[in-house]
Please model this.
Amino acid sequence: MFDPTDRTNGIDLEVTERLRRTLALVLAGGRGSRLMDLTDWHAKPAIPFAGKFRIIDFTLSNCINSGIRRIGVLTQYKAHSLLQHIQRGWGFLRGEFNEFIELLPAQQRTVGENWYKGTADAVFQNLDIFRAHKPEHVLVLAGDHVYKMNYGKMLAQHLASHADVSVACIEVPLEMAKGFGVMAVDDDDRIIRFNEKPANPQPMPGRPDLALASMGIYIFNAQLLFDQLVKDSTTEGTSHDFGKDLIPALVKSHKVVAHHFQHSCVMHEGAREHYWRDVGTIDAYWEANIDLTTVTPSLNVYDENWPIWTDQAQSPPAKFVFDSDHRRGMAVDSLVAGGCIISGATVRRAMLFSNVRVNSYCVVEDSVILPGVDIGRHARLRKCIVDQGCVVPPGLVVGEDAALDAARFHRTEKGITLVTQAKLNQLK
Model:
């Protein structure tokens, strides 16, 4: 079994060089339909998160901070804002040093001229490009999860265990495991069974409440991956998916090893959990953003040793104006991005993205306000998400009457209301 504290095998001396010869592929083509109207015009990885970032920034930052500087981003669904963000915010890599982020939208490059038919097919359709880079290892990543992870530690285990494939895994409650690839491992962490999104997930031995789930993070020996993708492309009945097809087949024929997330999770001092979030539902997205407003959130975005990089907008400082008892511009237990103006309004436990205007006598509580929103006077917003660019009419009340909220907007079972401009237009 891999010991992340072991320094006797000399693996660490070569990991840095191996990382330089590793190619990371970020799968960023998904719509994220469970986010409802938030993904009507943007792929899920492009959705804003944590005040100033995009979801994909966390995966890309993990690559840079881990020492991986050869990255391909595969896109498909409504990718314009995602491509624009990466071009503007991630252009600092230097091609003369063999560093790059290549943008790989679906181009119908193969015989049959199909769009990407699955995660494995997305990689297969660009196989000639990836072969030309001559990587030793290929790191396959999802672009729609929020976490901080040192991929170098995962590669160190991959090398030490002489694995053909490594799969990052995390323990999840059994009732949630139906949405994951669930695996069983032996005493050496070799995967002996892998089932993608099983109807009846198998619990971990001795832990009937937990299952060992795939994070959708894989390290392949490059030639093995290329060979398997070619084989999969001509296999009858395949869905051309890593979790459904490639990984289960390789478990039977090759050495596939589990890498436990706790061995490579980047944590701040005092952290109590190995932070990883799939923010793919309205409730999960709201909860993850609001958690950042607490005194000591589970995710540390202030860590200078593991910074999160992004497209840095040239915005003026946030501004708070008026200071009388009945009209005070203030924000408490909140994150307020640049360009915001809180004009005689009260903001509590809220996440305000860039260029939000909260006008006088408003109350905004327990809410996520996306970029460019203008909230009219006397509005009261509670437990809601307001989509980008919304103009909230004066006096609008959200979060105080569940039946009224459900009639006018999308309201989740947990009581989070999604406010969009299309729904606001219907109020007129």
About this structure: The first helix runs from residue 11 to 20. The radius of gyration is 23 Å. Confidence is low (pLDDT under 50) at residues 4-11.
